[in-house]
């Protein structure tokens, strides 16, 4: 299966989840097996910590963009490099700074192919 078809098929799969903020069951795009996702994230982090990782910003989400719709992504300037801050479109909130959201609730940095600033994303 080609990469484009795999991504298209992954984007069409849905999964129900419990939205804690709204207190209801919602449907979102499925990101695949959560245990496999966790395994990939741990392997990537372990590689970076022990110096064998390549430092890439690959995210094993299979095209999922659920995190791009979080209510708010706070940004803490003291934890960011000036280079990263320069790439982020920010707004002031009651709590400090946050990434700007579009009218549909998505992060302004979400593009047709996913995150357009992933390598410069805010630390959480």
Range of helix content: 25-40%
Q: Which strand order do you get reading across the main beta sheet?
A: 3-5-4
> What is the end-to-end distance?
35 Å
Q: What is the strand tally?
A: 7
By helix and strand content, what is the structural category? alpha+beta
List keywords for this structure.
single chain, 124 residues, alpha+beta, 2 domains, 3-stranded antiparallel sheet, two-stranded antiparallel ribbon, 3 helices, globular
Polypeptide structure, described:
By secondary structure, the chain is α+β, with helices and mostly antiparallel strands. The relative contact order is 0.13. Helices cover 26% and strands 21% of the residues. The chain has a 3-stranded antiparallel β-sheet with strand order 3-5-4, with no helix packed on it. The protein has a two-stranded antiparallel ribbon with strand order 1-2. It has a two-stranded antiparallel ribbon with strand order 6-7. Strand 4 and strand 5 (96-99) form a beta hairpin. The chain has 2 domains: 1-63, no CATH class; 65-124, no CATH class. It has 3 helices and 7 strands; from the N terminus they run H-E-E-H-E-H-E-E-E-E.
């Amino acid at each position: 299966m080609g990469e484009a078809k795999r991504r298209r098929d992954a984007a069409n799969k849905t999964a129900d989840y419990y939205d804690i903020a709204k207190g209801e069951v919602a449907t979102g795009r499925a990101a695949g097996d959560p245990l496999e996702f966790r395994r990939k994230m741990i392997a990537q982090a372990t590689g970076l910590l022990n110096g064998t990782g390549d430092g890439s910003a690959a995210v094993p989400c299979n095209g999922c963009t659920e995190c791009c719709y979080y209510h708010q992504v706070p940004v803490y300037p003291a934890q960011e490099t000036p280079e990263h801050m320069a790439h982020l479109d920010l707004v002031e909130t009651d709590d400090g700074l946050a990434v700007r959201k579009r009218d549909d609730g998505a992060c302004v940095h979400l593009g047709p192919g996913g995150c357009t600033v992933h390598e410069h994303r805010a630390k959480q």
